[in-house]
Structures are given as C-alpha cells and as structure tokens.
Design goal:
The protein is 37% helix and 21% strand. The chain is of the alpha/beta class.
Length: 448
C-alpha cells in the first residue's frame, strides 16, 4: 500500500503545508490517539519537541487531536528524541510523540511516534494511522466526559539528565577532559552540556542559542566545521556535535578531525566485546556503512549485519536477532542496553568512557580502521522516478560490473527529501569518483 504521510522516519515536510499543516496534524493526533486508546484505563500521550518556530503550532494541533480522542497529554517542551522514547516508558504512556525534522533546516518539521514500549511504530501501525486519517476521524472523537487533559511536565529535562549519567561507568569521571559540545541550536541545548558538566567535564558550548530559525544552521552533526574549529581554538580533548533532535552524533578528535558513526560503532563494539558486554557477536549497520567497518569486524571475528537505511530498521534487526549495538554512518547509534532509539549523547559517553579508561587521546582511540574510499552524492529529483528509466538501469549495471567484488554500490531515494542518493566505494578512489559522476549525470538526464 502506498504511504501518503509517513516516510522512513515518521511524518516530515515543510511546516504549515502538506502533512505538516495544522489541520492534517490535528487529524493525525485524533487518529493516533484513537489507535492507542485501547482498554478502560485513562490513556496518556507524551509530547516533546525541538526548537523550531513551527513546533508551537504543531504541538498545539497535536495536543488538540489527542485530547479530542480522549488522551491525557503530558508536554515536555524542548527535549531530545531519545528522551521522549525513554519517558514514554517511564511515565507509562500509551503513545510518545516527538516534534522534529531532525537534521533538516528550520522550515521543515516532522512527527515521530513511539509505542508504549518506547520503540518507533512499525510500518503496519503507521499504515493503520494513515487509514484512520483518510477515513473520517470525527467518528472516533471521545464523548464530552472522556476528553483528555493537558499539562506540562517541568522536570522532564532533569529526569533525562539523570538517566544519561547512569549510562556512564560508575568508576569513571570526566575530570580534566575539555569537551566542546555543539547542540545544533536544537533540543539538547540544555541537557547535553548539563550532563557532561555533572560528570566532571570542562565544557565549551556552541550551537546553544536557539531562536526558532537557527536549528542545524552551520552547526551540529551535519555541519561539524564549527565544532572542529572550536576544538582547535580552545585545545579541547574532544568535540561532540549532535543534530537538532540529538538522536545522532559526530565527534572530532583533539586535532579537529571528524570521526563518523562507523568509527564510533567500531570503538563501542570493540570495547564492549573486550568487557564481555557485546551481544549478537557483532553489530548492525545499514547498507551505507563503510566496507572498512565490515573488514575490521571480520578481523575481530565479529559480524556486520546490514539493513536498509533508517535507524528503525536497524533497531528491528537488533531486536529480532539479539544485537545490542547498531547504527548508521551518519551518527545514529543505538545501544539497546540503554535506549530504544538512537541517542547521540549516550553514544558519545560510551566513547568518552573508552578514552578515560585507556588514557589515550581521541585520535588514537577512535581511529579503529582505515575507511575504504567512499563517495556519496545527492541528485535532486522532481515527481518522476528516474531509477525506473532504462538508461539509468543500464548505467547502474555497468557501474556494478566495473566495481567488481571488491566494491559496493548503493543507489536509493531519500526517505525524507526529494533526492536520490548515489554511493559507491572501493579500493580504487579514482574509479569510485568517476562512477559516481557518471551515475549522477545519468540520473539527472532521466529526471530532466
């Protein structure tokens, strides 16, 4: 069945238009509230958001929909996505909602939904909500005596800070560690620096002055240059950059060199394997993770299981096959011992724990393998489907043949933007660049 509202990570679009218009968000609230109001108990939903201007509008529309479906609503205000997932379980809510478009610019927004177990909804559950949106939501409105109540939870940030601190080894402290923390002017601008400071670190903050418009703007995990420059300027030991909703992380070493999610997963997996904590004898990543990670794990007699792109597919595989480390090259890292979804701050703390434990600099701890040359480019598309074009299909087949068994090619539509992502990797860097250039031209020609 075609999906009208949900993509690879919830509902997302331009604020105040399409699926993110107030009337549609209201219907989504009614539909989700109806689906998760099962049983005779008083039902409860929790809502967190990032710092986008449109979050006020969407929060109110969602709240109205959930209240009209008979759900009580607890409002957290700005809070990371993983905090909402955690508090959904902690507060015994029937539904968790995060209002965020993650790493996208301010003019986009989105809605991520979590079930009572704190996990993102399945495709089947999302399709049920879509069906309820399209088939007359008014029929499921609660009677007057069953309408919900809304209230703000003032200690949500403090609850999450304490939870995060408990994931750091009790015998370790961060005294003497200078940390640059870039919170992308997003949802973690208060909680991330507070947690690190309370664990003993010396904190230098950037990206911590949200104004409704500057979320992810030249800052955060998708634009780590500012973090890298600040690390060099203040001679920090490490830089940590989160994205707008803090479910992903990118790190910089003491020289200001960027360390991506593949290296971070390798650090954590090797550390946990050494300590007897790694489950599944490996980790789960997506088709976009570097071939170097796969080769490194094989050398450690550990497995790499690959899924399609999207952290919820990583989580699904982890749950079904007994892994407790997984994630994406982009910095979504899921550590199921602690969280049901990606948590950039918790992942960073696990890396910091290894740095403190070994006494080695970040550049040494986090250079676990040599990455295979990999090129990723995005091609803007319209409403057409250029990947179904015979000319493009032929170009892809020729590229795969030229790469051979020593390389990989991944071409896929973005689930959140009108783009086609073209990735190739192999030991011959010149060939990889040439193949990506050729494929992008072929897709652009078909999309014109």
């Amino acid at each position: 069945m075609a999906r009208r509202y949900f993509g690879t990570d919830g509902v997302r679009g331009i604020a105040n238009a399409g699926p993110m218009a107030a009337d549609t968000v209201l219907k989504l609230g009614i539909a989700a509230g109806s689906l998760y109001s099962q049983g005779n108990h008083r039902h409860r939903a929790v809502i967190g958001k990032d710092t986008r201007l449109s979050g006020y509008m969407i929060e109110q529309a969602l709240t109205a929909g959930l209240l009209s479906a008979g759900m009580d609503v607890f409002l957290f205000g700005p809070l990371p996505t993983p905090a909402v997932a955690m508090l959904t379980r902690s507060l015994r809510a029937d539904l968790g909602v995060m209002i965020s478009a993650s790493h996208n610019p301010y003019h986009d927004n989105g809605i991520k939904l979590f079930g009572p177990d704190g996990y993102k909804l399945s495709d089947e559950q999302e399709l049920k909500i879509e069906g309820l949106i399209d088939n007359g939501g008014n029929a499921r409105l609660a009677p007057p005596d069953r309408l919900g109540r809304a209230k703000r939870i003032e200690d949500a940030q403090a609850r999450y800070i304490e939870f995060v601190k408990r994931t750091f080894p009790k015998q370790l402290r961060l005294e003497g560690v200078r940390v640059v923390i870039d919170t992308a002017n997003g949802s973690a601008y208060k909680v991330a620096p507070a947690a690190l400071w309370e664990l003993g670190a010396e904190i230098v903050q950037i990206g911590d002055a949200p104004d409704g418009f500057n979320i992810n703007a030249k800052c955060g995990s998708t634009a780590p240059q500012a973090m890298c420059e600040k690390v060099r300027e203040v001679r920090a030991d490490i830089g940590i950059a989160l994205d707008g909703d803090a479910d992903r992380v990118i790190i910089a070493d003491e020289h200001g060199a960027v360390i991506d999610g593949d290296q971070l997963m390798a650090v954590i997996a090797r550390s946990w394997h050494r300590d007897g904590r790694l489950e599944g004898n490996g980790l789960v990543a997506t088709v976009m993770s570097n071939l170097g990670l796969e080769r490194f794990l094989a050398g450690e007699n550990l497995a790499l299981a690959r899924t399609k792109v999207g952290d919820r597919y990583v989580v699904e595989h982890m749950r079904n096959h007994g892994f407790n480390v997984g994630g994406e090259q982009s910095g979504h890292i899921v550590l199921s011992d602690f969280s049901t979804t990606g948590d950039g701050l918790i992942a960073a703390l696990q890396v910091l724990a290894e740095v403190v434990h070994t006494g080695k600099p970040v550049s040494e701890v986090c250079h676990v393998f040599d990455a295979v040359p990999q090129v990723l480019r995005n091609v803007k598309t319209g409403e057409g489907k250029p990947l179904e074009n015979n000319y493009v299909k032929q170009a892809i087949a020729e590229a795969m043949s030229r790469l051979g068994e020593g390389g990989r090619l991944v071409i896929r539509p973005s689930g959140t933007e009108p783009l086609i992502r073209v990735m190739a990797e192999g030991d011959d860097e010149t060939l990889v660049h040439r193949l990506v250039d050729d494929l992008c031209r072929a897709i652009e020609r078909a999309a014109a």
